[in-house]
Design a protein that fits this description.
Elements (H helix, E strand, L loop, with lengths): L1 H14 L18 E3 L15 E4 L5 E3 L4 E9 L2 E7 L3 E6 L1 E3 L6 E2 L4 E5 L11 E8 L2 E3 L41 H10 L8
Antiparallel strand pairs: 1-2, 2-10, 3-9, 4-5, 4-8, 5-6, 6-10, 7-9, 10-11
Length: 198
């Protein structure tokens, strides 16, 4: 049974286009500690963690996880970001002081930049936020590296493929600030959503 599961996981990776090349960790540690896992949002505009955070020290070398072309290298909201396009997927790295430029071809393991603590997801400590995007969908970048963990099986039944339901709105967000439900409805309207009565 274990061989069947491994074969199914390998087939799914190959079908997604992720298995078409060699991949490596984007930091020099051969088995970096994942300090925050991938938690995709229930809906595209909601909270979530659209990548993983890898423990590393400020000044650590950040490397291309796979061969591709740099499609972005610069600041976003004051945070250094590098994006590499690998055909059907893109990988993102932040907070990074870029050492590459847009349009530059990179091979697996090539230096993209150095990690900085400014804008770190792990403040006051430093960590590399590593993302994986296919089209408009965020994926778990651990799928790229071998030995990253066993495949996860879904439960059987009608609810197996249904996404989890969001928690009911409480009117309070982290930090205790009150949520303006009217503003949230306006954001939903701008995104082309309609209001649904409870």
């Amino acid at each position: 049974m274990r061989h069947v599961i491994a074969a199914l996981a390998a087939a799914a990776t190959a079908a997604s286009g992720l298995g078409a090349q060699n991949w490596t960790w984007p930091v020099d540690d051969p088995a970096p500690q994942v300090v925050r896992e991938f938690h995709p949002p229930v809906v595209p505009w909601s909270a979530g963690h659209r990548g993983i955070d890898l423990a590393a020290s400020p000044g650590a070398t950040v490397r291309a996880a796979g061969a591709g072309t740099v499609s972005y290298a610069g600041l976003i909201a004051g945070v250094g970001v590098v994006t590499v396009s690998h055909g059907a997927v893109r990988t993102t790295y932040q907070p990074v002081v870029p050492r590459v430029s847009v349009g530059q071809a990179v091979e697996v393991g090539d230096v993209l930049g150095v990690l900085t603590s400014a804008g770190s997801h792990c403040a006051p400590d430093a960590c590399l936020h590593w993302g994986l995007i296919q089209g408009a969908s965020y994926l778990d970048p651990l799928r790229l590296v071998s030995g990253a963990g066993p495949p996860r099986l879904l439960p059987l039944g009608d609810d197996a493929l249904r996404p989890p339901r969001p928690a009911p709105a409480t009117g309070v967000v982290s930090g205790g600030a009150e949520t303006d439900v009217t503003a949230l409805a306006a954001v939903g309207a701008l995104a082309g959503l309609r209001s649904v009565a409870p």
